[in-house]
Amino acid sequence: xxxxxxxxxxxxxxxxxxxxxxxxxxxxxxxxxxxxxxxxxxxxxxxxxxxxxxxxxxxxxxxxxxxxxxxxxxxxxxxxxxxxxxxxxxxxxxxxxxxxxxxxxxxxxxxxxxxxxxxxxxxxxxxxxxxxxxxxxxxxxxxxxxxxxxxxxxxxxxxxxxxxxxxxxxxxxxxxxxxxxxxxxxxxxxxxxxxxxxxxxxxxxxxxxxxxxxxxxxxxxxxxxxxxxxxxxxxxxxxxxxxxxxxxxxxxxxxxxxxxxxxxxxxxxxxxxxxxxxxxxxxxxxxxxxxxxxxxxxxxxxxxxxxxxxxxxxxxxxxxxxxxx
Length: 325
What we know:
This protein is α/β, with parallel strands linked by helices. About 45% of the residues lie in helices and about 20% in strands. It has 13 helices and 11 strands. It has helices at about 1-20, 35-45, 65-70, 80-90, 135-145, 160-170, 185-190, 195-200, 210-215, 240-255, 260-270, 275-280, 295-310; strands at about 25-30, 55-60, 75-80, 95-105, 105-110, 125-130, 155-160, 175-180, 205-210, 225-230, 285-290. The strands form 3 sheets. A 6-stranded mixed β-sheet has the order 2-1-3-10-4-11, with helices on both faces. Strands 8-5-9 form a 3-stranded antiparallel β-sheet. Helix 5 (about 135-145) packs parallel to helix 9 (about 210-215) and helix 10 (about 240-255) packs across helix 11 (about 260-270). The radius of gyration is 22 Å and the shape is globular.
């Protein structure tokens, strides 16, 4: 009997120790874009409940909010454009890139179905979200490499976010926009329904910027655009990072393979999105989780282009080896 009591006591002690080892809270953060959607599934499915008592998703709406969250350590894991992660690292911020998961998300959308390449948009007004951030950066690198001047050859109308650009397109304030999924699919869905069909008939998918990238630079048609970074004190927590990496990969695969269910949980968390649009967008996004150190070759190719043409976007230099997890 004594032996049984001792065994039960030991078991209860172990349970208490395990409970104490759990973190009080883990904060996951990201934008409305596809890179964040697996994070939402992680929260909804309780994927990290074994390492934290509470797991929360926090939306960032623009690059300034992203930088504020990172600089003030108000998140633990954050979905981030790869150039911003490098920029923050080079400025001394405690940040490491864990993975690259988004390799293709950008495209042109237009009312003129004859426009097929970036050169076809020469002289046109284009709504462009996030000045000097990822969409603008990739557009600039491509048109420069194709012998054009992004400022002289195009009329860029900068918007604070993709949804402002999308609204300008829908309301016929512009006829062309560079957007990231799911904004492209949402715009197409919205304008295919009454009453918006009367306002904004006939929008078309046009140039796939990833394909243009492949042709222009003679590489694969993919760009290491976004992934997940770990910041602040969480960098030293190897156990939680390991669990995060395992669960993010699972959630990303679930997201790709369950578009209808995925769209439902994403829109419940981010009501500004459209469920049918999110569902449709999943087949157009190149999603593949690659650990940062394994993506280093692709990242450095991208970073070297930026270092040559626009070094400020990565903080003036290539990040050091310890940036890549």
